[in-house]
């Protein structure tokens, strides 16, 4: 989940259902361009594209990997490899869809090419909803980890109400990022968000440090837990949710024929980091591992502070990028575009709503599982497969390929149904 949002802006900044391209394929939304780093010029080298794509795929899902293994057991790591392979394949399907029409620049464009205006609206809607929930998960992450750094913190408010712990820090995090949501040009934040790669590396290094010098390795754990597989699979899909950004990065490439190589490199690199974090976290903490492995690190240690601080920086820099497409769509819907005061009012309202929801969500892992099971599955499995089948059906497809796509769709349906049901039960059960 979610760090692919940097370039996702290009896929969602237009109003819901409104094409980014006219019939001649020339129209471009200036606000969307202002919010994006300069990816659209087709001059990005192989190395830069690898960096961009790795930054897009690598995200806060790494924090939940040990917890995911604890829910599914050691053998679930085989399913993690399967999920990675499936997401790589569906990513290549998006690239093939883009080759079918040179005017395609965003993910909703792919939906429109396949299914017309209804396809564009459906793709865009799910992307907006996913962005909203990922923004909420960022605030939950901030609250949980700051509460660990500063335990028992609290403030007295009028009318005798006391704001403390996680809720206090969620409100403070919201106050910190609020001014960034008022900006029209978010390009600087897009570049700062590349710190996510550093944060992931710092987290893995901290777990190695913890295992060697402090906690030791338990070397135990469940081999397989069938009851936890739906939650586990949902969390695995969150790790590879970056498909909405693929069209933007594909368009930025100097040599687009090498996109599949870039995607393979990025997927393998992220998988190694995710896998190493999962194994280390579960070996050290076993079934006691929390939904964010940083919460298991012992308080007061230098590596704990480094891991938490680096983990916290990334969401703070990316929150504005996540909600900007949502606020832009609201402004367009109510004809408020171009008004600075309207932007401030709308973005503030969106932020306040995410702070309120985040304060009521008690467990980060359950929320991430819901995002992966319901929202990420749509963007990583259903949309790429269905659009590809629709676009290339007339040109003829090999039976083996159709069979593989059908199998992927069935897997996606299983995860979507069971994972969404399980995660919602878990969330409801915590209230």
UniProtKB/TrEMBL annotation:
Topology of the protein relative to the lipid bilayer: Multi-pass membrane protein
Biological processes per GO annotation: amino acid transmembrane transport
Molecular-function GO terms, alphabetical: amino acid transmembrane transporter activity
Membrane-crossing segments per the record: 74-95, 123-141, 161-181, 188-212, 224-250, 262-286, 306-330, 342-364, 370-389, 401-421
CC annotations in GO: membrane; organelle membrane
UniProt-recorded name of the protein: Amino acid transporter transmembrane domain-containing protein
Keywords: Amino-acid transport, Membrane, Transmembrane, Transmembrane helix, Transport
Pfam families: Aa_trans
Residues covered by the Amino acid transporter transmembrane domain: 45-423
PANTHER family: AMINO ACID TRANSPORTER, AMINO ACID TRANSPORTER TRANSMEMBRANE DOMAIN-CONTAINING PROTEIN
Organism: Triticum aestivum (Wheat)
Subcellular location: Membrane
Source superkingdom: Eukaryota
């Amino acid at each position: 989940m979610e760090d692919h949002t940097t370039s996702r802006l290009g896929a969602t900044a237009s109003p819901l259902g409104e094409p980014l391209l006219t019939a001649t394929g020339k129209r471009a939304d200036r606000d969307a361009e202002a919010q994006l780093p300069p990816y659209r010029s087709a001059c990005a080298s192989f190395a830069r594209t690898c960096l961009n794509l790795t930054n897009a795929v690598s995200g806060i899902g790494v924090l939940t990997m040990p917890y995911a293994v604890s829910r599914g057991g050691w053998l679930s790591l085989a399913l993690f490899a399967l999920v990675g392979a499936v997401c790589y394949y569906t990513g290549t399907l998006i690239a093939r869809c883009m080759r079918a029409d040179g005017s395609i620049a965003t993910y909703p464009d792919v939906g429109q090419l396949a299914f017309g205006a209804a396809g564009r609206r459906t793709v865009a809607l799910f992307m907006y909803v996913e962005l909203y929930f990922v923004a909420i998960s960022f605030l939950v992450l901030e609250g949980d980890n700051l509460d660990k750094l500063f335990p028992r913190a609290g403030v007295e408010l009028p009318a005798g109400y006391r704001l403390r712990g996680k809720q206090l820090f969620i409100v403070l995090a919201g106050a910190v990022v609020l001014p960034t949501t008022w900006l029209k040009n978010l390009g600087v934040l897009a570049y700062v968000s590349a710190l996510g790669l550093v944060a992931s590396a710092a987290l893995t290094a901290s777990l190695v440090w913890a295992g060697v010098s402090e906690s030791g390795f338990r070397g135990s754990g469940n081999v397989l837990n069938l009851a936890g597989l739906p939650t586990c699979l949902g969390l695995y899909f969150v790790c590879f949710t970056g498909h909405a950004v693929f069209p933007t990065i594909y368009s930025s490439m100097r040599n687009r024929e090498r996109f599949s190589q870039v995607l393979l490199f990025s997927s393998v690199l992220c998988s190694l980091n995710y896998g190493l974090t999962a194994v280390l976290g579960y070996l050290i903490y076993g079934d006691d591992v929390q939904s964010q492995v940083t919460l298991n690190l012992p308080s007061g240690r230098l590596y704990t502070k480094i891991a938490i601080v680096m983990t916290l920086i990334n969401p703070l820099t990316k929150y504005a990028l996540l909600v900007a497409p949502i606020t832009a769509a609201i402004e367009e819907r109510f004809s408020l575009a171009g008004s600075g005061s309207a932007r401030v009012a709308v973005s503030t309202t969106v932020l306040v709503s995410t702070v309120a929801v985040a304060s009521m969500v008690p467990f980060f892992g359950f929320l991430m599982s819901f995002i992966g099971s319901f929202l990420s599955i749509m963007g990583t499995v259903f949309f790429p497969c269905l659009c590809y089948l629709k676009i290339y059906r007339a040109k003829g497809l090999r039976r083996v390929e159709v069979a593989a796509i059908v199998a992927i769709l069935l897997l996606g349906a299983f995860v979507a149904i069971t994972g969404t049901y399980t995660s919602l039960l878990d969330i409801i059960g915590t209230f």
